[in-house]
């Protein structure tokens, strides 16, 4: 990886690490956390971990086993990310559409379960017998293509289908609820566009994951190298895109500005808004975030 690719690669690493770190600070410091905060804390932690992991190929260490472990970790991160994107959409669907809050207690167990499943699925890359190489690995093009079609493409198509359904249903419910509260709402036609952004962003990941399969038809060629570089660059910038969509909501941006400006009146407003929220006069923050609104606008 040389020249322009190195520059764009490290810029992406820097942007992803910076944006994910800012989102994590906001989520940990924000006052009066809602039930979606833990979801986003875990998601941002996955993004930070993947960003740090993606810098590993630049460590000066050449060894077949090292390369095999790196490949396995790459697929582990992709799969864990897919599972968590699915769980976030399922969680919000249950809370907002089904009015079922029992799902809240399964957040941490779900993460641990997804880590275990992803580990089992990706360790296969290391344990299936090879052809006498130092590292036991899926080491033929045919074997890797089948593996990728099942664990990456097939898996992500299912996740994409499910999250699209969940977010379309969530969008309908939130639009209806806001419309009931304000029948003259002129924003209703454009309300909740952020919700459509979640499956669209995941679709982008899906499209580029397919390049991983195509790449194996061009092993050892210049075209294969270009496909590899495009795929890796998307993965590098993906945590930054996640941060923009999942983390930098209107309310979180206002909170971050208050941290930078050290504005005490913001904290006072949040205390007042929390009291109003507790008696049911305004929606929970997660509703406002998904609708791309800020509860602070009420006091502006």
TrEMBL record:
<feature type="transmembrane region" description="Helical">
    <location>
        <begin position="72"/>
        <end position="96"/>
    </location>
</feature>
<dbReference type="GO" id="GO:0004930">
    <property type="term" value="F:G protein-coupled receptor activity"/>
</dbReference>
<keyword id="KW-0812">Transmembrane</keyword>
<feature type="transmembrane region" description="Helical">
    <location>
        <begin position="6"/>
        <end position="27"/>
    </location>
</feature>
<keyword id="KW-0472">Membrane</keyword>
<protein>
    <recommendedName>
        <fullName>G-protein coupled receptors family 1 profile domain-containing protein</fullName>
    </recommendedName>
</protein>
<dbReference type="GO" id="GO:0005886">
    <property type="term" value="C:plasma membrane"/>
</dbReference>
<feature type="transmembrane region" description="Helical">
    <location>
        <begin position="108"/>
        <end position="128"/>
    </location>
</feature>
<feature type="transmembrane region" description="Helical">
    <location>
        <begin position="144"/>
        <end position="168"/>
    </location>
</feature>
<feature type="transmembrane region" description="Helical">
    <location>
        <begin position="196"/>
        <end position="219"/>
    </location>
</feature>
<feature type="transmembrane region" description="Helical">
    <location>
        <begin position="225"/>
        <end position="248"/>
    </location>
</feature>
<dbReference type="GO" id="GO:0007189">
    <property type="term" value="P:adenylate cyclase-activating G protein-coupled receptor signaling pathway"/>
</dbReference>
<feature type="transmembrane region" description="Helical">
    <location>
        <begin position="39"/>
        <end position="60"/>
    </location>
</feature>
<keyword id="KW-1133">Transmembrane helix</keyword>
